[in-house]
Design goal:
The complex is a heterodimer of chains A (about 325) and B (about 325). Chain A is globular, with a radius of gyration of 21 Å. Chain A has helices at about 50-55, 85-90, 110-125, 125-140, 145-150, 160-170, 190-205, 215-220, 240-245, 250-260, 300-305, and strands spanning about 5-15, 20-35, 35-40, 65-75, 75, 95, 175-180, 210-215, 225-230, 235-240, 310, 320. Chain A is an alpha/beta fold. In chain A, α3 (about 110-125) crosses α4 (about 125-140) and α6 runs parallel beside α7. Chain B has two domains: about 20-70, no CATH class; about 85-310, MetI-like fold (Orthogonal Bundle). Helix content of chain B is about 75%, strand content about 0%. Chain B contains 14 helices and no strands. The chains are: A alpha/beta (about 325), B mainly alpha (about 325). At the A-B interface, α2 and α3 of A face α9 of B.
Chain lengths: ~325, ~325
């Protein structure tokens, strides 16, 4: 068995709120090997961002939060570690690219400082070496005139440029695992593709494992090896990305994929939205959480919760949590 | 250049309004310089003659004009009440005392408030936060004369660590000056401390919820470092603004502390002068305080540029 960069086993993240317990992540397991990329997709509120933060250990046990299950990064259980030891992982082992580059850079710190402070902290570089390396990192994320940019403040850069800085910041200490939490959601459409391609290129150059969290299936489609579809804090379907897109077996994945507008659609085609709203996580429905919105739902779905199971395909791992998975559309697609 | 000219214009406007307003109010106040000069028990005619001599019977606007035409040439006149010394000399003696007390008080408050606010904000809602919050409200509710008396009782009369009822000029002895100024400065600091801690704590809590704080933590920086290098500066706007206002206010209104410690500051000088109707004194002192206010405000505006690079403008 190859060494996994990340092993997540039966992870639960529960927040106690004034209105009751909110199970944001409710039993997620996944593994990721070096250089592998995993897309985590789902609607807002499906728990995907909380999953990313819990994996990193940014969300951990405290007065209002309970984390159970295990997250192992580099063989160590993130949630068993002392805070100081965990911080040593952040940078060299695991790093995160945040959603909104407008708010994830400190407005009063120069671009250069954002990158050099991590280098100096983790790698113990002196000011000169750290600056040199930061300039090099900015060059790697294709920021023009990196030396000049180092001395600028975030507000002097465009959104796309800022997200490149955020990426450079995350890559500074050569992490083995990168968690990109909706890295393009806040950006102009024209810039989104550039940033996603950049992330993909950097990940493969560095043989870095990547989790790409997104509500945008298009972003995940061509750039990840595997995909996990999340709904109501759980994984409802997971397989190779091409497999899930070609032949979704869970009605939710199918509906999600069908809701992507197509260029070949006739003008004024009504968007195929999924009826209803994501489940209330304070009080999730019994049985299958998707049942209230599922057009195939039967009585059993409303009573008995389906577990994630192997859907019994011959040559690929394809797991889903559905009592009545959709038929295999055409043989031979993998 | 235009900005500087605008500032000076603003300053002149403020000073004009302040001086005229104070002049009007003084004319409404009781307090007769003639009585203050001669003392009680003289025949009414003597007082009337003196008032005539001092020009107090002239119309209000003419008196203001007389004062103003002197003031613009830098002649603030002499005090009406003995010792009839030059107004500017008197202010020159009192202002350093008040300025020093205010600056020292603010410095003490700041040095204590920043760590307390950070500690409080880091544990927002926790025991430490509630404890600090309660102590600050406790301090706020103690009047400064009471706090001053208590400190004098304990540290001057009881322990004998600090002298009281004396003032040593900074130019005479730095050590002696600080020794004498410390206790009154602490009394001044208490009020400001409570205010500063509260304001900074609240702003810090808002800042700590920002994405860039999470991003800074995700780099593996220890919490105290995130607090100092990432959270403090963007959270300090209200604090700096408040500090500026406090500095201006403290220059002329530390009367209670000045009386308690028998310090020759601006506050007691103004109160005495106002009681005696000594309007050249009051006018001069108020004008100087207004000047300090405007200068401090300009300094604060300038500091915003340092605190937040987004507000920096490129001036042609």
């Amino acid at each position: 068995m190859t060494e996994h960069v990340l092993e997540v086993d039966d992870l639960h993240t529960t927040f106690s709120t004034p209105r009751g317990l909110m199970r944001a992540v409710d039993g997620v397991s996944l593994t990721l090997g070096a250089g592998e990329t995993l897309g985590v997709v789902g609607e807002s509120g499906s728990g995907k961002s909380v999953l990313g933060r819990t994996i990193m250990g940014l969300i951990s046990n405290n007065a209002n939060t309970e984390v159970t299950g295990s997250v192992r990064i580099a063989g160590q259980d993130v949630h068993e570690m002392k805070p100081g030891a965990r911080r040593k992982l952040w940078g060299p082992e695991v790093a995160m690219v945040f959603q909104d580059p407008m708010t994830s850079l400190n407005p009063v710190k120069k671009v250069g400082v954002h990158i050099t402070e991590a280098l100096r902290l983790h790698l113990g570089l002196n000011r000169k070496d750290a600056t040199e390396r930061a300039v090099d990192l900015l060059r790697q994320v294709f920021i023009p005139e990196p030396v000049r940019r180092m001395k600028q403040y975030p507000h002097e850069l465009s959104g796309g440029m800022r997200q490149r800085v955020v990426i450079a910041m995350a890559l500074a200490c050569d992490p083995k695992l990168l968690i990109a939490d909706e890295p393009t959601t806040a950006l102009d459409v024209t810039v989104q593709k550039q940033i996603l391609d950049l992330l993909a290129t950097l990940a493969s150059e560095r043989n870095m494992a990547t989790i790409l969290v997104s509500h945008d299936l298009g972003a995940v489609a061509g750039r990840t090896d595997r995909v996990a579809v999340m709904y109501g804090g759980r994984t409802v379907e997971t397989s190779s990305t091409s497999r899930v897109f070609a032949n979704p077996r869970h009605p939710y994945s199918e509906a999600l994929i069908a809701s992507i507008p197509q260029l070949r659609d006739a003008p004024h085609t009504v968007l195929r939205a999924i009826e209803g709203a994501p489940p209330n996580m304070l009080n999730p429905p019994t049985g299958c959480r998707f049942a209230p919105r599922c057009r195939f739902a039967q009585d059993r779905c409303r009573e008995e919760e389906p577990l994630l199971r192997d859907l019994g395909e011959r040559d690929v791992v394809h797991r889903g949590a559905c009592h009545f998975p959709l038929e295999i559309a055409y043989e031979g697609v993998s | 250049m235009r900005k500087v000219a605008l500032r000076i214009g603003e300053l002149a406007g403020v000073l004009f309004i302040v001086s005229f307003g104070v002049f009007l109010m003084l004319s409404l106040m009781p307090g007769d310089p003639a009585v203050a000069i001669l003392g009680e028990g003289h025949p009414p005619q003597e007082y009337a003659d003196l008032r005539q001599e001092l020009g107090l019977n002239d119309p209000l606007l003419q008196r203001y004009w007389d004062w103003l035409s002197g003031a613009v040439t830098g002649d603030f006149g002499t005090s009406l009440v003995p010792p009839q010394s030059d107004v500017l000399d008197r202010i020159g003696g009192a202002l350093p005392v008040s300025l020093q007390l205010a600056v020292m008080g603010l410095a003490i408050a700041l040095v204590l408030a920043i760590p307390l606010a950070m500690w409080s904000a880091a544990r927002a809602g926790g025991t430490v936060d509630r404890l600090i919050g309660a102590s600050m409200f406790g301090i706020l509710s103690v009047p400064s004369f009471l706090a001053g008396l208590l400190l004098i009782l304990i540290f001057s009369n009881g322990l004998g660590w600090f002298p009281r009822a004396q003032w040593v000029r900074l130019s005479d002895s730095i050590g002696g000056n600080l020794h004498h100024a410390l206790l009154p400065a602490v009394v001044i600091a208490l009020m400001e401390l409570a205010l500063f801690t509260r304001v900074l704590r609240n702003d810090l809590i808002v800042t700590l919820n920002e994405d860039f704080i999470l991003a800074a933590r995700a780099k593996g920086m220890p919490p105290w470092r995130v607090m100092v290098t990432d959270a403090l500066r963007p959270s300090s706007f209200s604090l700096v603004t408040l500090m500026g206002i406090s500095l201006g206010r403290l220059i002329g209104s530390t009367v209670i502390v000045e009386y308690l410690f028998a310090l020759p500051g601006m506050g007691s000088m103004i109160v005495n002068a106002a009681n005696q109707g000594d309007y050249p004194m009051v006018q001069g002192a108020v004008l100087v305080i207004a000047l300090v206010y405007v200068a401090v405000n300009a300094g604060i505006d300038f500091s915003y540029g340092y605190l937040d690079p987004r507000t920096r403008r490129v001036d042609a």
